[in-house]
Amino acid sequence: MKKNFRIKNRSNYLIDIDFYPSDRSGHADELPLLIFCHGFKGFKDWGGFPYMMESISASGILSASFNFSMNGVDVKTPAEFTHLDLFAQNTFSQELEDLGLVIEHFCNNSKEFNINRNKIALAGHSRGGGIAILKANEDKRIKCLITLAAVSDFNRYSEDHKRRWRKRGYFEVINTRTNQMMRINSTLLDDLERNKSRLDIPAAIKDLHVPVLIIHGKEDLSVKFEEGDILYKNSNRENTEFFVVENAGHTFGIVHPFKGSTKTFETVIEKMIVFLKTNL
Question: What integer is the mean pLDDT of 253-257?
């Protein structure tokens, strides 16, 4: 059964974490750990993410997922965006800091969780995949990486859009699931321009020398398949596998609330498990 706990970041905001122990956790041998990052307008409890983490932990690999501290979801209402003020202020650098603190927490408390600190992997979906790529390049404790429908670039805005965004101080996107208008402040744009080199995803994956598994649906309408191809072409291809999922969209057939797994999602999970067992 998963264990839920929270840690605070440097701004005193909560990072809500779910840890999924394995049936083998009681054994003497320490086990590998996979840490998963959700994407934009996402959260750790979205759709089939908990099912995916449970499946991975059942295979003998410890797993953990978490909410970025400023993703807008409250710890008491894990599937609702009740802190749109925080969502508006979120930045890519903040998410990198949060992920770093999660890694640090598990490394510092590895005996409590029965973790092998030399066998830690990252995975991320969509925008979370971009964050995972950047952190895997920064943190040498990460031994392998999985991306799921990951973005290849955070700078996804035209110059005209950025000009209007800067002038107004924010722009809004609609959450089609909740019908909420979600504001994004120009602090995100500031972060993107101020930290251009650090937030360069193609450059980061090019520098990576650990095994990488890129998973992307051929029919992804949210993050086009071509972005997965860009990641693969910029990667060290001796260590990278590009797993193309035919007839699959951005979430591999999974919806929220979770209505059960799909054949496509099971294929993705099995691919992840085989990759992790091979490389950790």
Answer: 96
Q: CB atoms < 10 A from the CB of 207, how many?
A: 15
Residue the block writes with tokens 């092998």: 116
| Domain residue limits at 233 | 3-80+91-154+198-279
Q: How many domains does the chain have?
A: 1
CATH of the domain at 12: 3.40.50.1820
Q: Which of 151, 131, 155, 128 is nearest to 226 (CA)?
A: 151
Residue 28 has what pLDDT?
57
Question: For residue 32, what pLDDT is reported?
Answer: 97
Q: What is the average pLDDT value for the chain, to the nearest integer?
A: 96
Distance CA 171, CA 161 (A): 9
Please say whether the beta carbons of 19 and 7 come within 8 A.
no
Alpha-carbon distances, residue 40 vs 44, 208, 222 (angstroms): 11, 24, 11
Residue 71: CB partners within 8 Å, gap ≥ 6?
38, 42, 43, 86, 87, 90
Mean pLDDT of 240-245: 98
- Beta-carbon contacts of residue 32 (< 8 Å; ≥ 6 apart): 61, 62, 115, 116, 119, 120, 121, 276, 280
Q: Residue 75: inside a domain, yes or no? A: yes
Q: Looking at residues 195-221, what average pLDDT do you find?
A: 98
